[in-house]
Amino acid sequence: MNRRTFLMTATATGASAAGAALLPGSASASGGLSARVRRALDQALASGAPGAVCGVIQDGQTYVAGAGRLRATRGRAEVPDGSTVFQLGSIGKTLTATALARAVHAGSTHLDAPLTLPARFPVPRKGGRRITLADLATHSSGLPALPPNLFTGADPNDPYAHYTLDDLAEGLAKTELVTVPGKTYRYSNLGFGLLGQALAFDGVDAMLRRRVTDPLRLRDTRTTLTADMAARKAVGHLEGKPVPDWHDRVLSGAGTSMYSTADDMLRYLAAQLRPERSPFRAAIELTQRPRFTADDRLRLGLGWHLSPLPNGRTMTWHNGGTGGFSSCAAFSRDSGTAVVMMVNTASEETADQARPVDALTMKLLRELDAA
């Protein structure tokens, strides 16, 4: 998925979605903020999302609202809120990057360390240059987006579920680097999946809970649903039809099977805005520090993408998606503003238009950052 398409300024239409219902968030918001969030939610529904939730941090306060379409069979809207569980998708890569940054500051590894896996997992090379952990975390490893054998025997509705460590070993033996490591931005789920395995071989999910989500009190950000989370989970959709969630036991460091809520994402974004108030300031600061330049509109920290705003400030962002969900999170440290939006439908960018959830998140952040 080409994340650079997110940089487009195209926005969804302003059509109002009938049946939208809003829920107040954790703080009282001004009319200006609530009206802007309402417009974004209306546009998300108009673009085809059955439900949407949007969370904002501004001036140290949080605001969350949800919207849902009227269902003809029930005559009412099913409205998500800050506690509704969505699949998060690739925003989860920033969690893996945070785990890497924590390991670096603990002295257990360093960013220029070569990617090392057990002997039966051959790491491809090109031009004599070994892939480093920093290459993986900045999408500059030269690895393709996916393993060459991922879709062999895969369920199209749950494409990672069948993939095993044995499959990964076989796939890596067939993998060729597209570019020399460290030279070119090329978005790679395989790369971040390998980063997770390099940090905690065959124990990525437990490692992420221990090093990142538990210390940050992100109780609903995990790859396995608890009974309580399952009761609050939205149903994913593709082209208007319900679809199953994605499951991944091997490349989950890429966020392919991560769940979360808007409430959790606001806690996470609050830590990004004020790292000094988090349990691991230095690691968070390291993830946001520019390390690789893709072009004049895009730089990479560890996991995070960094792009210029019209006023010269920096927008730090990541989006995500699975087979039935789309999400986007963006923030500006300079203004102390953050936005997250989650919808329970899958969508893809086109050659000339960003996904609605990305365009709406970007537009709202720009508006609030300029306010």
UniProtKB/TrEMBL annotation:
Keyword Signal carried by entry: yes
InterPro entries to which the protein is assigned, alphabetical: AmpC-like, Beta-lactam-related, Beta-lactam/transpept-like, TAT_signal
Residue ranges occupied by any Beta-lactamase-related domain in the UniProt entry: 38-359
Domain of life of the organism encoding this protein: Bacteria
Key words of the record: Signal
SUPFAM superfamilies to which the protein is assigned, alphabetical: beta-lactamase/transpeptidase-like
Signal sequence range: 1-29
Xref: PANTHER family: D-ALANYL-D-ALANINE CARBOXYPEPTIDASE, D-ALANYL-D-ALANINE-CARBOXYPEPTIDASE/ENDOPEPTIDASE AMPH
Name of the molecule in the record: Beta-lactamase family protein
Gene source species: Streptomyces coffeae
